[in-house]
Amino acid sequence: MVLFADQEIPISPFCIKVEPSHDAGKVKAEGPGLSRTGVEVGKPTHFTVNTKGAGKATLDVQFTGATKGEAVRDFEIIDNHDYSYTVKYTAVQQGNMMVTVTYGGDQVPKSPFTVNVAPPLDLNKVKVQGLNNKVDVGKDQEFNVNTRGAGGQGKVDVKITSPSRRPIPCKVETGPTSDVYSVKYMPPEEGPYKVDVSYDGHPVPGSPFTVEGVMPPDPTKVRAYGPGLKGGVVGKAAPFAIDTKGAGTGGLGLTVEGPCEAKIECQDNGDGSCSVSYLPTEPGEYTVNILFAEAHIPGSPFKADIKPVFDPSKVTASGPGLERGKVDEAGTFTVDCSKAGEAELTIEIISETGVKAEVHIQNNSDGTYTITYIPPFHGMYTITIKYGGHAVPKFPARVRVDPAIDTAGVKVFGPGVEPRGVLREVTTEFTVDCRSINKTGGSHIKIRIVNPSGAITDSYIKDNVDGTYHVEYTAYEDGMHMIEVLYDDVPIPKSPFRVGVTEGCDPSRVRAYGPGLEGGLVNKPNRFTVETRGAGTGGLGLAIEGPSEAKMSCKDNKDG
C-alpha cells in the first residue's frame, strides 16, 4: 500500500510476486561419477554440477551406501568459478549407492542418482579359454572369456583382425553364467589373425593373441600324378608325386598292396608336395592307396600294372613308311618287340614345324605291331619309337614326306629370275608355267621375294587362265634377292631363285621410234621419241650427223 498525506494513492495497494533467490530445476549434474556403471570400489571418480542460470545457493552432495558406514572417501566439491562445480569422490562400498544432489536445499533434476559400485578391477582374474592357436578357415569358431572374480564393470570387448588387416565380425554373448562370455567368429582366409581381448577397456593378460587360420583338410583338392600310379617294371622304382597345396592341413597316408611287399620312400619337397616311389619285386597289379585326413583322394586307390623286366635294345623296326612318305597317304612299317619282353610301345611322328601326324598302332598279338601314319604336310618328319619309355635302337629317325602334288613339271623362266640379275628400280618380269599339272589357272601360285635386309618386295601375279602366270616386281635394294615360287604351298623345282640386284643401265632396253628416224623435209621440224623406261639409270646422249649441222632440241616427258 502506498500513502500520500495519509491518503492511499490510486491503484494502491500493488500486488508483488516475490520469487525465491535460486532455481534448482535449472541445475544439471552429469559425469562418470553419476553413471549407472563405471564406478569401482577404491577408484577415484568425479562428476560436474552446472548452476548457470539457477541463481545463487549452496550446493550439497550426500552419498548413501548399500550398508551402514561411510559410503565414500576423498569427497571434495571444487568451485570452478564459471557457474560449475566438480565433485570428486572415491567409493568404498560395493553395490548400489544413492547420490543426492541439492541446490539451496532443493534436489536437482534426476536426483537422487543410483550408482552401481563395482568391486575392484583385477585383470589377472580374466581368463581366455578355448582359443586355439590354429583354426580352420571358413568354419565357425568359438572361445570363452571368464571374468569370475575380476571385478570392474564386467565389459568384455573383442576385436579380431585378419591377415589382410581387415576387421573380422565377432559376436560376444553372455554364457551359462553372467561372468562367462562366449565369443563366436569365422575366419575367412589363411594366415595369422590378431585377437584383441579387453576388459573394461584394458587388455587382458596375453592380449593380443595370435591365431593361425589354416584351410580345413579337403582331400578332393589333393592331386597325385606320375608313372608309378599307372605301372612300372619289376626291380625299378615306380615314382609319383603328391601335391597337397590348397588342400588345408591334414595327415597323409600311403600304402602299396600287391603280389609282394613294396618298399616305399617319401620325400617332403617343402612346398606342399612330396615325391614318392615304391620298389616292386614281382610283376602283377599293385594297389596304391593315398589318404589325406583319413579319406581317399581323387583317383585313389590307384591300380598300377607292373610288368616284368624288358629290353628295349631288342626292338626292331622296318618297312617302307620309314624310308619315304607322301602327304595325306598312309605310310606303314612294322615294329618287332617279340624278343624284348613286355612293355608299352609309344610312337610319335612329328614334322619340323611341330605338327604331329596321326598314328595308329595295331597289336598283332605275336609280339609285333603294325604302325600306320598319315602325314598332313610335306617336309622332314622325326619318328620316335619308345618301348617302356626308352628309345629303341636307331631312333629317333628322320623320313622325308613328299607333297601330294608333283611340281617337277612346273617351269619358271624370264629375265626376273635369270642369274645375270636385274637392275634396281627397274620393273622386271618372269613366267610360271604350270600346264603340266593345271591348264585352267586359278589361285595356286604364291610369290615371296625377300630382300637382303629381310624386307619383302611386292610382286604382282597375273593369271593367264591357261596354266601360266605372269609375274612382275621392282627391286629397290642392291644385293641378292631370294624369290620363292610355291604351287599350293609346295615349292617348285629350283625355288628359291637367287637373283642379284645392282644399280646401272642396259642400253639394249632403250627404244627409239618416230617419223624423224625414217625421213623428213628440209627446214621443217622432224620428231622422234626415245624411251628409257626399264633400262636403269644412265645418261642419254644424242647426235645427228649429215650434210649440214641440224639444230636439235630435247624434252623430258617425266615418264621415262
Radius of gyration: 54 Å
Q: How is the biggest beta sheet arranged?
A: 6 strands, mixed
Strand content: over 45%
Number of strands: 51
What is the distance, rounded to the nearest whole angstrom, between the alpha carbons of the first and last residues?
Answer: 140 Å
Structural class: mainly beta
Mean pLDDT: 87
Secondary structure tally, helices? 0
The poorly predicted ranges are none
Global morphology: elongated
Q: In percent, how helical is the residue content? A: under 10%
| Oligomeric category | single chain
Briefly characterize the structure.
The chain has 560 residues and is mainly beta. Helix content is 0%, strand content 46%.
Would you kindly provide a written description of the structure presented here, covering whatever features stand out?
With 560 residues, the protein is an all-beta fold. Strands 13, 15, 16, 19, 20 and 21 form a 6-stranded mixed sheet that branches. Strands 41, 43, 44, 47, 48 and 49 form a 6-stranded mixed sheet that branches. Strands 4, 6, 9, 10 and 11 form a 5-stranded mixed sheet that branches. A hairpin with a 4-residue loop joins strand 7 and strand 8. The radius of gyration is 54 Å and the shape is elongated. The mean pLDDT is 87.
